[in-house]
User: Which sequence fits this backbone?
C-alpha cells in the first residue's frame, strides 16, 4: 500500500475553528523540529544511540552512608538527642547487624576444628568409651 | 571493597555500571564531555565503587571545595541587610539569608551576630557562583541546623578525619559519649564545634581528635573496645 503524502495545510485553513486541534498539533511539530535543529550540536546522534547514562551528583554523605554530623551524648542537648533517635539509631543498628552476620575467617576455622572433634566423639563407638587401662598395683 | 585503584586527575573511566540508565557520582568525578558514558577524574586518590551504581574518589585534600548537600560549620563574618556572609573555609564566603532559619519572618529575624558559629546545609555550590547556605530543611524546620551556642569551642581538623569519624562503624564518638556528656557538630569543611559540661571534657575531646588524625581506624576501634 502506498503511503498517503502529508499535505501541508495553509494558514487560512488552520485558522478555522474546527481545525483548532490540528493547528495545535502542527504547531507542536514545528516547534519540536526547531528545537532539534538548535540542539543538534549538543545532543549528538552518538549520545542518543549509546543509550545515554544519566549521571547524578551527590555528596560523600550518601556515597559512604555516613551519619549526620550533629550529635549529642549524655543528655547535653535533649533536642538533638531526640532527633538522633530517628536516623542515628537506625544507622547504628544497621552497622551492628552487618558486624554480627560477618564471621571472621579465623573464628570460623577455630569453631570448625572443635566441631570436628565433638562430632567424632559422638561416633567413637561403645568399645572405646570409658576405656580403662589395667594399672599394676604399687609394690607397697 | 572491589575496584580500589589509584587514579589521577585526567584519567578516564570507561566501563560504568548503571541501574536503569542512572549512575550516581560522588566527589572527585565528573562527566566526560569528549566521550559519552565515560567519566573523568578530577581529584587524585582511590576510586571507590558501591554496588549497584555509585562511584566516588577517596582523597585527602586540605582545601575544602563546597559541594551541594554538605553540612558545614561556618563563622559569620559580615551582616548586611538580609543576608549574612559566612566563612566556610572555601575560596569564597557563602551567603546565608536571615530568613532561612526556623520561625524567621521579616519582622522577627534570628539573633545572630558577627563572630557566631552556625551549622548549615549547602543549598547550591557551583564553581562560578557564591555558595548558598540554609539553616532549615524543605519543611522549614530547623532540625539539627542553626546557630551554635557561644559556649562551645571551634577547632579545625582535616576533612578526611571528619568522614572517618562519621562512618557508623567508627566507635570513637560513641565511646567518648559513654565517658562524659558532650555535644559536637562536625562540618564537612573540616571545622568541628564541641561543647561539654566542663572545659576539661572539651579539651579531652580535642586531644582525642588530634590523636585520631594520625592513627589507623583499626587501632582506634581496638582502643575503644578496651574502654567499654
Assistant:
Amino acid at each position: 500500500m502506498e503511503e498517503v503524502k502529508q499535505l501541508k495545510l495553509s494558514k487560512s485553513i488552520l485558522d478555522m475553528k474546527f481545525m483548532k486541534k490540528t493547528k495545535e498539533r502542527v504547531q507542536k511539530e514545528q516547534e519540536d523540529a526547531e528545537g532539534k535543529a538548535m540542539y543538534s550540536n549538543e545532543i549528538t546522534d552518538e549520545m542518543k544511540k549509546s543509550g545515554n547514562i544519566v549521571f547524578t551528583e551527590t555528596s560523600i554523605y550518601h556515597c559512604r552512608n555516613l551519619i549526620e554530623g550533629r550529635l549529642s551524648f549524655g543528655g547535653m542537648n535533649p533536642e538533638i538527642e531526640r532527633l538522633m533517635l530517628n536516623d542515628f539509631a537506625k544507622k547504628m543498628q544497621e552497622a551492628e547487624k552487618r558486624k554480627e552476620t560477618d564471621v571472621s575467617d579465623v573464628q570460623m576455622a577455630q569453631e570448625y576444628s572443635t566441631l570436628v572433634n565433638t562430632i567424632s566423639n559422638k561416633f567413637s563407638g561403645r568399645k572405646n568409651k570409658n576405656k580403662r587401662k589395667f594399672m599394676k598395683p604399687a609394690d607397697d | 571493597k572491589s575496584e580500589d585503584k589509584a587514579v589521577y586527575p585526567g584519567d578516564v573511566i570507561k566501563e560504568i555500571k548503571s541501574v536503569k540508565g542512572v549512575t550516581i557520582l560522588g566527589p572527585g568525578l565528573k562527566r566526560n564531555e569528549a566521550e559519552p558514558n565515560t567519566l573523568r577524574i578530577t581529584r587524585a586518590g582511590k576510586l571507590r565503587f558501591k554496588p549497584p551504581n555509585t562511584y566516588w574518589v577517596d582523597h585527602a585534600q586540605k582545601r575544602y571545595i563546597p559541594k551541594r548537600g554538605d553540612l558545614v560549620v561556618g563563622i559569620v563574618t559580615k551582616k548586611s541587610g538580609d543576608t549574612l556572609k559566612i566563612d566556610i573555609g572555601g575560596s569564597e564566603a557563602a551567603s546565608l539569608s536571615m530568613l532561612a532559619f526556623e520561625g524567621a519572618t521579616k519582622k522577627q529575624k534570628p539573633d545572630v551576630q558577627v563572630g557566631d558559629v552556625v551549622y548549615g546545609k549547602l543549598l547550591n555550590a557551583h564553581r562560578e557562583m557564591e555558595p548558598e547556605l540554609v539553616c532549615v530543611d524543605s519543611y522549614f524546620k530547623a532540625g539539627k541546623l542553626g546557630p551554635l551556642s557561644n559556649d562551645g569551642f571551634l577547632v579545625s581538623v582535616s576533612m578526611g578525619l571528619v568522614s572517618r569519624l562519621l562512618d557508623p562503624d567508627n566507635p570513637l564518638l560513641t565511646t567518648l559519649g559513654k565517658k562524659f556528656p558532650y555535644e559536637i557538630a562536625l562540618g564537612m569543611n573540616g571545622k568541628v564545634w564541641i561543647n561539654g559540661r566542663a572545659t576539661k571534657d572539651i579539651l579531652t575531646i580535642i586531644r582525642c581528635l588530634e590523636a585520631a588524625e594520625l592513627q589507623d581506624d583499626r587501632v582506634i576501634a581496638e582502643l575503644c573496645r578496651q574502654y567499654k
